[in-house]
Design brief:
334 residues, alpha/beta, Rossmann fold, Alpha-Beta Plaits, 6-stranded mixed β-sheet, 11 helices, 14 strands, elongated, disordered C terminus, antibiotic resistance, Daunorubicin resistance protein DrrA family ABC transporter ATP-binding protein, DrrA, translocase, ABC_transporter_ATP-binding
């Protein structure tokens, strides 16, 4: 088996008394999207900064295409692209002007910078707005422009740090389409995000990071399967939620999550039941308890539920960044 294109082994990073990374391991095959999930302050952006040669680790090693990110930093920078949480483009320039400027900063000749700018604008649907000031671009257009500035040198590996933060659904879909197109052409993408549906739809593999370590990894389906399916029940009478919870807990061995205001309950099916739970049994036992069910179904858990089970926190919440820690932001591309 070929060596993964991105490898981190035992990465450690500390900011004063704050341990951002505590021996993190990661391996990413070429031509895939890897989603890195974690609460605020978990170490996601610190990981990206180290892999992108913007920060040195205190311990451990990391390699991009076999090149050590510390000892071979110049070689690594020629292989990667980076788009951070905030657009690094100049709002006073046109879209075309931004790309030509970045091309020159990457030491392309004037002719090559012009040619590459036009290629990218055409490919990513920005040619009609190419000669407009970026100041007048929508949020989604700015993010697409920021994304393609990181593609001028055709990177083998692209790091995206929460690329769709603050975008509306249509703009998010446009960014997702752009990412899929890049991967289809062979680019490897490492994506940090707090949008679990984004990771579910884009990522071939997901690594969950908490307290500076990878605590779980696998495909989205593998992670969902690791916590088992869920039983969902909707009651005709919401006032009977407590009685229904007792019945479901006894059947499944799990702890039901109940919403008394809506009369809905959800319970994991790997909680310790001695035999598989059948929907007919659920309906029968609820009837015996005098509880009428409007709907009973079994479903796979969402990534949000996996994340909550693994970290004890919802995906959009996390501890405040400790004093002295490096901010979980990357404001400029490489």
């Amino acid at each position: 088996m070929a060596e993964p294109i991105v490898v981190a082994e035992g990465l450690r990073k500390r900011f004063g008394d704050t341990h951002a990374l505590r021996g993190l391991d990661l391996a990413l095959p070429a031509g895939r999207v890897c989603g890195v999930l974690g609460p605020n302050g978990a170490g996601k952006t610190t990981l990206i900064r180290i892999l992108a040669t913007l920060s040195d680790p205190d311990g451990g090693t990391a390699r991009i295409a076999g090149h050590d990110v510390v000892r071979k930093a110049d070689r690594v920078r020629a292989l990667i692209g980076l788009a951070g949480q905030y657009a690094a483009v100049d709002e006073k320039l046109t879209g075309r002007g931004n790309l030509r400027m970045f091309g020159r900063l990457y030491h392309l000749s004037r002719a090559d910078a012009r040619r590459r700018a036009d290629e990218l604008l055409e490919r990513f649907g920005l040619m009609e707005a190419a000669d407009r000031q970026v100041l007048g671009y929508s949020g989604g257009m700015r993010r697409r422009l920021d994304l393609i500035t990181s593609l001028i040198l055709r990177p083998q590996v692209l790091f995206l740090d929460e690329p769709t933060t603050g975008l509306d659904p249509r703009s998010r879909n446009e960014i997702w389409d752009s990412i899929r197109e890049l991967v289809a052409d062979g680019t490897t993408v490492l994506l940090t995000t707090q949008y679990l549906d984004e990771a579910d739809r884009l990522a071939d593999a997901v690594a969950v990071v908490d307290h500076g370590r990878v605590i779980a990894d696998g495909t989205p389906d593998e992670l969902k399967g690791s916590i088992g399916d869920r039983l969902d029940v909707a009651l005709e009478d919401a006032s009977l939620v407590a009685r229904a919870a007792t019945v479901l807990g006894g059947l499944t061995g799990g702890e039901p999550e109940a919403a008394p205001e809506t009369g809905r309950l959800s319970v994991p099916l790997n909680g310790g039941a001695k035999a598989p739970v059948r929907l007919a049994d659920v309906v029968r036992e609820l009837d015996r308890a005098g509880v009428a069910a409007a709907d009973v179904s079994v479903r796979r858990p969402t990534l949000d539920e996996v994340f909550l089970r693994l970290t004890g926190q919802p995906a959009t919440a996390g501890p405040a960044e400790p004093a002295g820690a490096e901010p979980e932001k990357i404001k400029e591309g490489v």
